[in-house]
């Protein structure tokens, strides 16, 4: 679980296919800002309003994530959504359709920030496509409170891996194991995202979906803060090959993981 950082730094234009942004759509935007502001130390500034009220979360004055208002009549799950960089969002959207995916929103301009689309893969997992202009994406990485990894939870990885490889040009690195279905997506030598096939263990009320991991300084302390702020622990803290990790949900039910890198 190594976040794909560009050699040129976070302010450089991302190579196509690189995860460059994460965004959350929530019903109660003010309460959601309060939760994540207390949890990660984020501050907020208004962002593009093409899809309704939207704010950008800042850490130390630098952008790390976005949050928008989900109208009550939109029966969509409250969830974190990763965005993948593109040099031409219209062309990428066409490729999504040709490969069996769906484009639900856009492509459309987000003011001067860039151009975007929201799509889903053939299994139904939602992701974003971002062609940056004034706003290139997350401007700080590797610090507590920043996104560090994105992982797709799906039924099986073989077919969906082909979809993402066709759309974004990834190379696939599968785990060779009869009882663990996992594929790491790479751009050259850099791992950029993971696909985890969990079969019937996938929640029936969610279906396939992406999950974002955020770096924290202390996983156990973060869990105490999550519950104190009205969130829930979905999977308790445990030590793994990539550090100490846990999965939680915010007060509206948006799931995410927190991880402390052992390095």
From TrEMBL:
<dbReference type="InterPro" id="IPR041581">
    <property type="entry name" value="Glyoxalase_6"/>
</dbReference>
<protein>
    <submittedName>
        <fullName>VOC family protein</fullName>
    </submittedName>
</protein>
<dbReference type="Pfam" id="PF18029">
    <property type="entry name" value="Glyoxalase_6"/>
</dbReference>
<dbReference type="InterPro" id="IPR052164">
    <property type="entry name" value="Anthracycline_SecMetBiosynth"/>
</dbReference>
<feature type="domain" description="VOC">
    <location>
        <begin position="146"/>
        <end position="261"/>
    </location>
</feature>
<dbReference type="InterPro" id="IPR029068">
    <property type="entry name" value="Glyas_Bleomycin-R_OHBP_Dase"/>
</dbReference>
<feature type="domain" description="VOC">
    <location>
        <begin position="18"/>
        <end position="132"/>
    </location>
</feature>
<dbReference type="InterPro" id="IPR037523">
    <property type="entry name" value="VOC_core"/>
</dbReference>
